[in-house]
Amino acid sequence: MATPVKVYGPPLSTAVCRVVACLLEKDVEFQLISLNMAKGDHKKPDFLKIQPFGQVPAFQDEKISLFESRAICRYVCENYPEKGNKGLFGTNPLAKASIDQWLEAEGQSFNPPSSALVFQLALAPRMNIKQDEGVIKQNEEKLAKVLDVYEKRLGESRFLAGDEFSLADLSHLPNAHYLVNATDRGEILTSRDNVGRWWGEISNRDSWKKVVDMQKQQHSP
Amino acid sequence: MVVKVYGPAYASPKRVIVCLIEKQIEFETAPVDLIKGEHRNPEYLKLQPFGALPVIQDGDFTLYESRAIIRYYAEKYRSQGTELLGKTTEERGLVEQWLEVEAHNYHPPIYEMTVQLLFASKLGLSVDEKLVKKSEEKLGKVLDVYEERLSKSKYLAGDFFSLADLSHLPFTQYLVGPMEKEYMIRDRKHVSAWWDDISNRPSWKKVLELY
């Protein structure tokens, strides 16, 4: 039996969850090695050896040590093509191109404003950091414009890259989950007909439900 | 039918053009004037609904996001031109890793600096000096990690040139050129050597000559 791959980082981290969701979709056994970021685990020399930017997650299998969640996801799909959801990264070059396009759209257009909102609305209060109303307003407007494009796309296509669930949809799960469940601005997603319908479908996947369970266990006494 | 690349005057489309040249793929270009707001025209938005540059058309096939486009062509034309994805799955993994680093760690601060220092005045906006300073500090910290990496490895993903290095060309050219911040590269010995190597590739020199 193959050694489980290792993922380093706290289960509450959005980027860590992106990788965990992918491993679950691909049915690849993994071990999650949590880090205490409040204690600065991610800035210690041992961790910086595998992630020199001091960010999470990091990933190791028998052959390689990698970082950047979307790179890890692509590597997992390429290295384990026959496992789990075989279509997660497309089964032909044109399908893969469309998935890469929407993965980039997620990374460049969806991620920055949604991350800023999650930080301001869900994390800052917990960390006793004052919320910045200007930043909140600016990012709400940015995200609304992005979601207008998604609304049109998802009226023409069941999932972002086509008819099948893919890595592009998966990549949105962590930030969208926090927006809907940990802030009072969830309706930015749920009030749009097509985006709402899409959110309902992708968040109900078994793999994502397992990730949410894993996050809940983090909180249990 | 050749690949058509929109917006060659700007940085992100150049990311695509240099890749096409490395892969010996024929292409043509179509201008898009950002200052005139042509990226907001309905015809352009049909191709790229976010109103960003570039988009390519290849027969009936349309694709946007420069890093998605370069991945597609680097893979489709694997057997010709420069190998840009490494030779093994592991090498590919490292190329993806450093391409993501460029996209999420290098690009955001250098893009802010580009908008403020090169485009704000053209758009009738005042330069946000605080933002420029903050972005420069962020970029400096990223370059420090690159300095360490490039002291052990000739290129970012290993001893081979790849999409990861290529992706840095357009905006870094702005940094050392019109932004007048060449010192950020030159102050770092290994980053400096790496920049000289990649920016002197015939493909990049061709891009600068043409556009």
UniProtKB/TrEMBL annotation, chain A:
Keywords: Transferase. This is Glutathione transferase.
